[in-house]
Amino acid sequence: MSQSKLDFLERSKEFWNPGKTQAWQDMGVDLVIDRREGYHLYDMDGQRLIDVHLNGGTYNLGHRNPELIEVLKAGMDRFDMGNHHFPALARTALAEALAACAPASDMKYTAYASGGGEAIDIALKTARHASQKKKIVSIAKAYHGHTGLALKAGDDRFSKLFLSEDTSDEFIQIPFNDLNAMEDALRRRDVAAVIMETIPATYGFPMPEEGYLPGVKKLCERYDAFYIADEVQTGLMRCGEMWACEKYGVEPDIMVTGKGISGGMYPIACVLISEKCGGWLKQDGFAHMSTMGGAELGCLVAMKTLEIVQRPEVRSMVNFISDYLRAGLDKIMAAYADFFIGIRQHGVVMGLVFNHEEGAKPVMRHLYKNGVWAIFSTLDPRVLQFKPGLLLSQEDAEEILRRLEIAVGLAREEIMGNRRRSF
Amino acid sequence: MEPQVRNLVDISTSPAALRSCADLVLGRAQWATQVFQRYDRSATMAIVDAVAQAIHDNAQKYADWAVEETGFGVPADKKLKNELSAFPLVDYYRDEDFINPQIDIGRKIVKIPRPAGVIVALTPATNPISTINYKIIMALMTRNAIVISPHPAARACCVDAAEMLARAAVSAGAPDGIIQIIEQPNIPLIEEFMKSPKTSLILATGGDAMVRAAYSSSNPAMGVGPGNAPVFVDSSADISKAAERIVDSKSFDNSVLCTNESVLVTLTQIDKQLRRALEGYGAYICSDEETEVLRRFLFHAKGFNVEAVGRDAVWIAQECGIRVPVKTRILVTPITQIGVEERLSKEKLCPVLAYHVVPNRTQAIAQARAILRLTGAGHSAAIHATDERVIMEYASTVEVYRVIVNAPSSQGSAGFQTNLAPAFTIGTGFFGRSSIGENIGPQHLVHWTRIAYNKDPSETFGHFENLGPEFAGPLPQAPADGVPGSSSPKTIVPPNSSSEFTGLKSSGPKSSGPKPYREEFSREELRKLIAEELRAALKR
Lengths: 423, 540
Ligand SMILES: Cc1ncc(COP(=O)(O)O)c(C=O)c1O
What we know:
A: 2 domains, seven-stranded mixed beta sheet, B: alpha/beta, globular
């Protein structure tokens, strides 16, 4: 490591976040991202990394996508964040663009936030207003962000520390893929909404079983609860359709999109609200406010992002990328079958499962040393999040597989020693 | 109220947007060819045959459409050309293998075919559909992906045809995206395609400006120059047959094939006889006054009159106030000079044939060389003769790479009434500042990796029979876990046999946002573009 990087890390500990800075050093990932372009990151010491973390799809279209840069630059000649109290050209234009591609036909309104957590809070507040009920059901180990309500809906790993966990039994958590538990939670008809990550990301992408999500939606209808889809990681074509919930045949009442919609270029997140849930927007339009939520420059970037991901070429690319990587991953899995034990996949949303309770960490480290950046799942470190971009080239895809094969081999050896492979 | 998708900040003409659009199309093409290269010969040929069938079945439809859209040519002839670019083209190369390794035991060499990858194909307004068909067939035979850049004047018929063929290919098992077309071509966008590092080869057929731009792109390119074919009718010719073939050729598709005869050169001794024979087959021989009117009509101060391209003889005569019989197929304009001072000795993409008489063979050949100095170097020439010595002398003197003997040149040079390779892209070689002197064929779209052994006899050559590369075929479809019916990896669906495979990736986008590169070409720009191209082609 260069002296200048060492110096920088000291300053990072001193002034930014000592715990987080140190934790990465302890995990053997001394990454400080400097230059970035397309799906490539460059550490401040110059090492190139192919990014298959993409911050959960934030960089779906690559880092510093040239069209997004262009639209932001051109936008600055006319717009700034705008005044959130007033009707605004860009906010309405983006709302229309979202309505035009929404997963349900009655999804009409869009409310804006500057990040995913804030948008989740808006979604939960909206459901509470529309139902005039307070309880929220979410999935154990779900992750919806760190703002007030989103935090309570998520795992207490992040709330307890701040003495911010739910204490009034308003937030109920139940296991994923368990329709009986869901029915038990909803039976009393006192639940405002069920919030579902279509595929729980931070939990390592466990896949919804066939019929599970439509089953949840049916239960919601039966017991008068709204269905909120958190499509922050799964939306925007990552599953081969605009929104993953469409693939599962679910029409949510409220949907949240974040991360990728910003193009990684200007912070923005959006809550799509169906007519039946949007009552507060008529009753008291000033009831929720956010100065930076829906900043008009962000809206311009988001509109371009929507336009790009809906091009027919992108759909085709996503199919190629997911088919090709899967074929390669299957081969690697066969070669290290006692260690690399599973692949969870829907489109370019993938989780690689390893046969050790923290198995994804050494894989992450060896990948990092071999020029690929992918992150373990915080809430299930057996699983490596493997999230390639929508526009990945054949060349980069081949590079990723080549490097992954090496990293999996090294990680296996580290964890299992030279134990003879029994296959 | 319905939601509208609007564009508040338009960046569609910015270099960033153009480059990104090109990059996306080419990126998809790269994926498609990589997957296509997993296909074996029979899977590949099944796709080729399916596309040829689609071309054949739609030959009439697109012939009509092309004539209607561009105003160039004759529907019946265009239909024929479309048909020729289907099975006759495929059959010409059917026995050649561009997919399996070839073993040369004697030389201890094994050759492995390696497709170019992504081909960017520029196609002209004069032969829009036949050129598209031809380039697509060649690309598919060699497992390349192709992106077509249609001439803006023939945009609509080309886009429809290419998309239809793309569907036919995918239905027969081809990877999605193997055939793409630039829906709204404009010059800055085409330049981005041509210079992209994702482009492996540019196949340029069209105006000289475009061909030169292709060569300047920094990518490998095969382009062709303009034609201006001289045809020499020698005293040893069967004059009646010669006249018939020349009229057939000149009237074929109203002379839009660049292989059409431009100037007829003949000898005083057979002049009268030849004129009479030409008249007998539907030629109208113009008087000096009529020739002068035609000269002014066809050539403006700045170059060839675009209005006349691909029009029929009667229409042109009417425009010029020349009274001709209604059955007139071509107009013949006698000229006394060849060279810069006689505009009628330049290329004319319409059924007007200049006619020049010389006293002897030596002068005839000198004049033929002069015609090609004006324009058309490296392209085509024709001769009607039975005396091999004059054929040899003519062919070895004129600066072209194909000399058609006793056949119509339009069709003959393009390989349809000769045994030349059927082609709508005629290599004009070194004479014509091109990289290729033959009719372009699929063999030009692959290179070969050669395994070369030590030639010392002590090192024995290996056994490579049946060791070909693994042809794994289409990629299995990755699972969409939890979606009914798609949770476990699908087994490979054999091409040709399954409608499911067909439907897989064909669903379109739900709503289309503003498409930066789908911006309209104004009629004004369009006219200017065609005019410029023709001017460049005809100037020299
Ligand atoms: C599924 C999901 N929802 C919500 C969020 C919160 O988004 P943000 O970090 O922008 O607040 C995240 C962030 O990782 C997420 O993955």
